[in-house]
Amino acid sequence: MFGCGVDLSKPLPEPVTLNPDDYRPEITDIDRLLFSPKPYDDARRSQVAATLEGLASRITAGSESRFLKMEASEIKILASLAKHTSASDPRDHLQENWMRIRKNLFEGRQPSRNRMLYLQRVMHSSERNSECIH
Known about the structure:
Elements: H1 24-35, H2 42-60, H3 66-84, H4 92-106, H5 113-127
Helix pairs in contact: 1-2, 1-4, 2-3, 3-4, 3-5
């Protein structure tokens, strides 16, 4: 990531708070799927990943907000983690990351400056992946 030439002189994007009522079905489904004590089987793993991916697409639809694009990237990463978390693995990391994302997007909690810088680097890296030194 350090070889990507990230320009950190750009101002950080302004956080956006979305109306949770507009996303209630997705929020409720993700909460239910991640926090249910039922086994984390293949069907549930696929369903939570698909719901997260759908939410990531939906929050950026019709918007040019860099903040929403960064949050969508985080949601897609979480979807990938959800797909690859086995039934025997603890789901704490999925639950904690979902709650952080949920608070950032729907409850108006301001992400820290360090978190925003990290997200900016991740977004820049994914946009210019071919130029990065790995």
